Amino acid sequence: MSLLAAASATTTFDVPANVVFAVLAVGMVTAAIRVVTTKNIVHAALWLVVVLGGNGIVYLLLQAEFVAMTQFLVYLGAIIVLFLFGIMLTRAPLGRSDDLDNNQRPLGVLVGVVLLAVVGFSLARQWGRDTLSFAAYQGGGAAGGNGRTQALANSIFGEYLIPFEVVSVLLLAALIGAIVLARRD
Amino acid sequence: MLLNQFLLLAAVLFCVGVYGVIVRKNGVLVLMSVELILNAVNINLIAFSTLWGLAGQVFALFVIAVAAAEVGVGLAIVILIYRNKRSIDIDELDELKG
User: Fold this and answer.
1) Could you tell me how many CB contacts below 8 A there are between chain A and chain B?
2) How many domains does chain A have?
3) What is the extent of the structural domain holding A172?
4) Is there a single domain that holds both residue A83 and residue A167?
5) Does residue B97 lie in a domain region?
6) Sequence-separated contacts (24+) of A97-105 with Cβ below 8 Å
7) CB-CB contact of B16 with A113 (8 Å)
8) Nearest CA of chain A to the CA of B19: how many Å?
9) CB-based contact B32:A48 (threshold 8 Å)
10) Is the same domain home to A155 and A91?
11) Contacts of A160 in chain B (CB under 8 A)
12) Residue A126 located in a structural domain
């Protein structure tokens, strides 16, 4: 990431970062469309891996290394495995199946396109030519080391300590709830 | 890099996820589409955190934790539906319809 850090200071590394972003964006959108259109439910889970991994690399491009690593560990390591378990426990058709979609495809396309047009128009109006300066990351934490992760830790365990504790209680409740729901009596 | 390229990528992923939630009939696939939506929101949070400080990254971490909880409980519910009805077609869950 030192290359990208230098890029933000001199803006000469913008071109490779943009190339990486373009490749990622095309791949992620393609994979996301495959997730919602493929006829094979296991393939949908595997395309979801591409989207979630691409998300992690986008976080790296945005210099959020800790969130990127959390994304790889939690999503690619745990959630995909949960999905594959869910697919197998519900005896979903493992091969091709034509029975995964309902008959609302025109409505879905309409809602998606209209939503994208509205959101895209307002984003283009509001954030037309704003560039990423990474200004908010400067001067946080110790110099030389990874100051951003240190600042993030200070932020979580300082300013956001109570929300953090609430999230941990929520995770515990979800764990107990999942066991209670899924166990056979 | 422009801020907008990240926001527009997130908007496209969000809309694809909404399409999936509307169109898919299988419960597990609907949960996957919800994951697409949550990830799109995370891209937005982190893109804005480059401008306005680390709060965006903290909230992205919270979203990841809540998404993990959501998938755990959601899949437990889907498995329970499967056990009771031998099918996870969401369109067949219409007992509340009069």
Assistant:
1) 250
2) 2
3) 147-185
4) no
5) no
6) A97/A39, A97/A40, A97/A41, A98/A39, A99/B25, A100/A39, A100/A41, A100/B24, A100/B25, A100/B26, A100/B29, A101/B23, A101/B24, A101/B25, A102/B23, A102/B24, A102/B25, A102/B91, A104/B22, A104/B23, A105/B23
7) no
8) 5
9) yes
10) no
11) 55, 58
12) no
- Find chain B residues with C-beta within 8 A of A135's C-beta: 50-51
Tokens standing for residue B7: 């926001």
Residues of A in contact with B85 (CB under 8 A): none
Whether A13 maps to a domain, the answer reads yes
Q: The complex's ipTM? A: 0.91
Tell the residue number behind the tokens 């879905």, with chain if given: A108
Note the pLDDT tens digit of each residue in A106-165.
999 999 999 999 999 999 998 877 777 776 666 554 445 567 888 888 899 999 999 999
Residue A90 sits in the same domain as residue A170: no
User: Taking the model in full, what pTM does it have?
Assistant: 0.88
Per-residue pLDDT tens, chain B, 98 aa: give them.
788 899 999 999 999 999 999 999 888 999 999 999 999 999 999 999 988 888 899 999 999 999 999 999 999 999 998 888 888 888 888 888 87
